[in-house]
Design goal:
By secondary structure, the protein is mostly beta strands. It has no helices and eleven strands. Helices cover about 0% and strands about 50% of the residues. The chain is globular, with a radius of gyration of 13 Å. The termini are far apart. The model has no long low-confidence stretch (mean pLDDT about 95).
Length: about 130
C-alpha cells in the first residue's frame, strides 16, 4: 500500500506564493512519475504539473512560468512551488502517483493513469 499526504495549502492574496509538499510512504518507488492535480468547485479535476523519474517537469499552459514541480527522492517527497498566484488557482490540490514503474509520464493529464492519490490540500487565492 502507498500513502500520499499533502500539506502546505492555505489562503493568500493574488500575487503571493505557496509551496505544497506531498510525502509518499509505504511501498514506494522513487522512479514513478508524480503529478499535481487540482479541482475547483463544480469543475473537473485537472492536471497541473507532472515530473518524470528523471526529474523533468511538464506543465499545464495555465501555470507555465509560475509553478515549479520538483521531487526529492531521498525524502520521498514531491513539491509544487506556486508563485504569482491568481484567484483562478483556487482549488483543492492533489498529488498522485502514476501507475507506470518506468518513470514515464504517459498521458500525464489523464486521471486514470494514476493509481494512488492524496487526500488534497486547499489553496485559496483572494483578489
Amino acid at each position: 500500500q502507498v500513502l500520499l499526504v499533502e500539506s502546505g495549502g492555505g489562503s493568500v492574496q493574488a500575487g503571493g506564493s505557496l509551496r505544497l509538499s506531498c510525502v509518499v510512504s509505504g511501498r514506494t518507488a522513487s522512479t514513478n512519475c508524480m503529478a499535481w492535480f487540482r479541482q475547483a468547485p463544480g469543475m473537473e479535476r485537472e492536471g497541473v504539473a507532472a515530473i518524470d523519474g528523471g526529474g523533468i517537469g511538464i506543465y499545464a499552459d495555465s501555470v507555465k512560468g509560475r509553478f515549479t514541480i520538483s521531487r526529492d527522492n531521498a525524502k520521498n517527497t514531491l513539491y509544487l512551488q506556486m508563485n504569482s498566484l491568481r484567484p483562478e488557482d483556487t482549488a483543492i490540490y492533489y498529488c498522485a502517483r502514476h501507475s507506470r514503474y518506468d518513470g514515464s509520464c504517459t498521458q500525464w493529464g489523464s486521471r486514470d493513469k494514476y493509481n494512488y492519490w492524496g487526500q488534497g490540500t486547499q489553496v485559496a487565492v483572494s483578489s
